[in-house]
Amino acid sequence: MEGLLAALKAAAEETRLRLLAVLNYGELTVTELTHILGQSQPRVSRHLKLLTDAGLVSRYPEGSWVFYRLSDKGRSAGIVNAVVSMLPGDDLILQRDYDRFLQVQTNRSEKAQDYFSENAGNWETLRNLHIADSKIEAKMLKMLGDKQVNEFVDFGTGSGRMLELFGPRAKKAIGFDLNAEMLALARMRLEAQSLANCQVRLGDVTLLPLESASADLVVMHQLLHFLDDPAAAIAEASRILAPNGLLLVVDFAPHDMESLREQHEHRRLGFSKAEITKIFDDAGIEAHDCVDLVRRGAKSSLSESLTVTIWSGVKSNVSVLNLDKQNRQ
């Protein structure tokens, strides 16, 4: 009862109701909210703190920025949804706030597109070296089959393409990346697709702020070759996977294109089936499928093509029991 009263009191103020209304459209920073509401940053920050303390809003630090989002967990989510649903759609102040939100969204989109344009050349070079992305994605969807997904986690989400692909299949989806510019691009794409169940966060994929055994699906798409310790990322995936949860890893088979290290910051030149199988086994993941996708008749500036490999594995019940035992100890 005290929690309910605190939440209702927190919402019962005009500025805070406006904040809830705007955050219903998507997650925003304090600076963006200040522009939308036309109020000072200290005032907006104070109201956000009250909403956060009451559990109606969640805050997510991302470098020097902090993003705010309506709560999507438990009783707080129910209260927020009920309050927002009762806001008058014809209110002039709320309509003005929405118009300014659209301006913020447009500005964010333009910045993300600028970043994409600046880097599109590098990404296109890599795409020309391997089989079409559409064929890779089709194979991944086939591997997922009709599996029910409550929570999907995308390691190294980049531009958010995997969230676009698998997000509609999940009740909740979250992507993590260490590149803030890429996260801005991902947010733009998710908003364009109206994928409100998806979100992105700045985070280290070897140490994620997620509960153990909480995810049904984890995807690592073209991530491992950038990492100093690929095994640590797979171990973290195993930690957050629920029993029988599915792990999909997409990366390159072993190759000798040293230029990818020099021009694209690749730390590893591909992975063998035996190497990934061992990493899976050490992490408590039962290896299932391993599929090589080769671009036939490929022609590139490097006079060869890359083989893309998709590995799938399932979190074993034995590893879950061991984790439970460790937690009790």
From TrEMBL:
HTH arsR-type domain: residues covered: 1-91
Classification via PROSITE patterns: HTH_ARSR_2 (PS50987)
CDD domains assigned: AdoMet_MTases (cd02440), HTH_ARSR (cd00090)
GO molecular function: DNA-binding transcription factor activity; S-adenosylmethionine-dependent methyltransferase activity
InterPro entries: ArsR-like_HTH, HTH_ArsR_DNA-bd_dom, Methyltransf_11, Methyltransf_Superfamily, SAM-dependent_MTases_sf, WH-like_DNA-bd_sf, WH_DNA-bd_sf
PANTHER family reported for this sequence: METHYLTRANSFERASE (PTHR42912), N6-ADENOSINE-METHYLTRANSFERASE TMT1A (PTHR42912:SF93)
Protein name: HTH arsR-type domain-containing protein
